[in-house]
Design goal:
Shape: rod-shaped
Radius of gyration: 23 Å
Number of strands: 4
Helix content: 25-40%
Strand order of the largest sheet: 3-2-1-4
Strand content: 25-35%
Order of helices and strands: HEEEHE
Largest sheet: 4 strands, antiparallel
């Protein structure tokens, strides 16, 4: 049979373990994000630039990128897209 003191220690250790697990799993989800990827927010054509405006998964900031006509034509607002020569924005 446990004493009152041992019950308090057990609860404290259980609470510490739960806090550790929450921080551990939360940090894993941040690391898995690819900061050069996001959702296409808009698209258009300006002069010779077929652009896609993409909202970053990491910063939620939007940035426009120029692509060739084939890439632009095959991707649409709402699609998930990664920019290969970009580290993030």
């Amino acid at each position: 049979m446990r004493t009152k003191k041992s019950n308090q220690i057990f609860r404290a250790l259980l609470l510490l373990n739960l806090i550790f697990l929450v921080f551990f799993f939360d940090s894993c989800s941040e690391d898995e994000k690819e900061c050069n990827c996001g959702t296409i927010a808009n698209d258009g054509i300006t002069d010779d630039c077929y652009w896609l405006e993409i909202r970053s998964d990491c910063s939620q900031m939007k940035k426009q990128f120029c692509f060739d006509q084939d890439i632009w034509f095959d991707n649409h607002p709402g699609d998930y897209f990664c920019v290969t020569n970009e580290t993030g924005w």
